[in-house]
Amino acid sequence: MLQPEIEKLLNEQIVAELYSSNLYLNMAAWFSERSLTGYAHWYYTQYQEEVDHAMIFFGYLAQAGGKPVIGAIDEPDSEWPDVKAVLAKGLAHEQYVTSLIYKIVDAATEAKDYKTVEFLKWFVNEQVEEEDNASTNLGRYEAIGTDGAGLHALDAELGARVYTQTTQIAGYQL
Ligand code: FEO
Known about the structure:
The chain is mostly helical and 174 residues long. The chain has six helices and no strands.
């Protein structure tokens, strides 16, 4: 069984992850519209990963004796003034998601819900990678400045990102 306050936080995180997936899908569309197809692919892949994150929480809730309930998902931004603004939003958003994960860790620890604390360790580590990816995307873009050739090289590199479903969700059966 899950304590009601922990169940509520985990369900809110499903919504937060689905919000993330929609935000990144909008970013993919924004880049696609500007023919930056590598960036568009990278953010489309990120969208797929966020859906996985939501499903990991969904699966854990069901397995741990809770009930997954999908709440309303806010409309994410879809317009940005320039590439840098999109990348900066990506970093700020991941930092926000990290704060949400830490909030659940704090609540689960306080509630002595050690199985949830253990479950969340994967997300604590995942957020290190998520923030690093977003920070690297922003930093590399800033490094090329106004070099158009550099942007196209970066775009091509980002287009090679490969989506791999996480082992966390791959091993889960309802
Ligand atoms: Fe689900 Fe980007 O963290």
